[in-house]
Predict the 3D structure of the following.
Amino acid sequence: MKTEMICAGFGGQGMLSLGQVVAYAGMYDGKSVSWLPSYGPEMRGGTANCSVVVSDDEVANPMITRPDIVVAMNKPSVAKFVDTIVPGGYIFVNSSLIDTKVERTDINVVYVDTFKIAHDGGNPKGTNVVMLGAIVQTTGIISMENAKKALAYSFKAKPKLIDINLKMFDLGCESVK
Amino acid sequence: MEKTLMKGNEAIAEAAVRGGCRFFAGYPITPQNEIPEYLSARLPEVGGTFIQSESEVSAINMVYGAASAGARAMTSSSSPGISLKQEGISYIACGQIPCVIINMVRGGPGLGTIYPGQADYFQAVKGGGHGDYKLLVYTPATVQEAVDITYKSFEMADKYRIPVLILGDGTIGQMMEPVVLPEMKDPATFPSKESWALTGCKDRPKNYMTTLDMDPDRLEAITDRLFDVYEQIRQNDVEYEEYMCDDAETVIVAYGIVSRVAKAAVNALRAQGKKVGLFRPITVSPYPDKALGALADKACVKKFLVAELSKGQMVEDVRLIVNGRKPVEFYGRTGGHVINTEELIEVIEGGKR
Amino acid sequence: MEEKIVFKKPALLEDKPLHYCPGCTHGIVHRLIAECVEELGIAPENVLGVAPVGCAVFAYEYFRCDMAEAAHGRAPAVATGMKRVHPDKLMFVYQGDGDLASIGMAETVHAAARNENFTVIFINNGIYGMTGGQMAPTTLEGQYSTTSQKGRDVLVNGYPIHVCEMLSQLKGPQYIERVSTHDAQHVLKAKKAIKKAFQYQLEGKGFSMIEVLVACPTNWKMSPEKALQHIKDEVTEYFPLGVYKDRG
């Protein structure tokens, strides 16, 4: 079993971090993982994305051309990646910023109003964590337990933020149940 | 052994420290910046020295000085910066000064791109700077392998008194993968370099480090010695991986990031019952010529396909070694493009050139 | 009769004939370095040196201490690496004008800015000696060289570089002085400056550079005597002697 995921959005929307949490959790699950950022000028305000592979076997190729899962936090990301998803795969659309609908019918489309959920939950900056919850709940790419462990680890430098982000994660899960 | 998730560049930097590196000089260039950034904080913690030099040229010469003075020293850069270092590398090779040089290769020529490339192969394995010399060149394909190679490189550099070049690429540097880090070595336990290093001539004749010798016999002897050492490495320390080559009819030859794409292609084709294998050199200088030659002699092998991020550089070495025994085909991409799995499968199946 | 030694070779100098041309004052400077080291009570085993590319390329043959021969212009970078590994050693860097002020200017400026704790002995003879007399960054206005055969034309070749003046504008360096070797009195002054630079280094005070005006009779196409007179009359006019920076 191998899952390939691309997380894309504006720089600052936390897509690289989201990908890293998935990679950490996959590692805690005992899987082989890789995380590869798009690096370069995109880091400074353009579209940033990363490729994450979580696999039972050794990760052969860390670069993804046909993802199983795409996370699109902004419109350009939908346009760039929607046609690359394998049939039966998933796209998670941040409907707070993206008002269009995905036309493909051979993939699973999950709309998540990340900003409303994060805002109502008391942490408007937590949109990426809300999205993470939705992804884990829907796809099971990583275990729930290790997703939370990896999420907490990602805030090790700011421990005060752990609880609120675990709440964001749960709200994300709830939103797609 | 606990696994941690690390970026290639940072993992290499930490592995260098654990391997005894106590001096680093470098200059900013993408995509290797995490190496100097990490070491600027890390080296002082272990009593080492980090210098952000005024240029690549200066950085390699600081390494020349520090390594001549007996320290385990390293510099890192990416393609255009490595070109600037070539003068210093030639001196270091001639002086038989052990050190480690990292090249996180980007696409070129010129300023090129910050995206991955493999077009510095010729520069790495055929010399690079002026004069007759060779480097020991490793090509890691995973972050763990980059760690293991970096750690080992300092040993190999000291053992053979040769500069070691680690030929990575932007992907290896930027990617995060789980790694197990090796144990911290204590430089106090390293073998003495007193016979040649510039440590102060206490209780011994003076040492000097020069690459100038106007006596033709002596300079020829120096050059011969460099190549004797290289031959010893070729006999004893070349490294490679064969993947599903036992009954392979088509053998892909690839290194670094492309070897991973190739492995994915081999897996996919094997799943369809197609007899495809991968030969992955880990040292490209010296090249694992005996192993590749043995594959060329195997009856089942019908052809080789060399895949690179260049217009065809390693393919020349492969053709020299295969020496007409089997056809050697080539597929390459440049400009910062990385060959993808589907593309490579198409090439193998004959649909793409 | 009791014998008293009144003159001897300093321990830092090898017993070897120098390859320098007749009338060249490189040899004097080599000796000054060795005398200063000795007078400061430093054993050769506690000295490290770097030789340049240029006429002094074989300097490591003449000093009895561990030395590196650097690529052209890179001596301050090589010295930086060595000194950082052995901060307890006295480190001198020997460079000519082409090496220091042309191809190696970046290394010079940045070593000074970092206030690296070593001493650069900058030999300024206004010419590329070893390669046969080409124009240097310190070749005087109007001066003949094999690449300025009608004399250095500032409209074509630009102006000579005043290195002491330039480096003294930096905040980094500890001590910058220009001295000369054209007569005994000035040689003694030069020695005093070198000794002071070494003293500062031993105190950990950082970068010092002593620019030494040196004669090149061969490439100036002058007799040794006339070459010294030329330094006195012309070179010191263009490159005034004195202390340019001393942070004390």
Observations:
- The two ends of chain B are 45 Å apart (CA to CA).
- Chain B touches chain C at residues 22-23, 25, 49, 51, 53-55, 57-59, 61-71, 73, 87-88, 91, 198-203, 206-212 (CB under 8 Å).
- Residues 4-236 of chain B form a domain with the Rossmann fold fold (CATH 3.40.50.970).
- The mean pLDDT of chain B is 96.
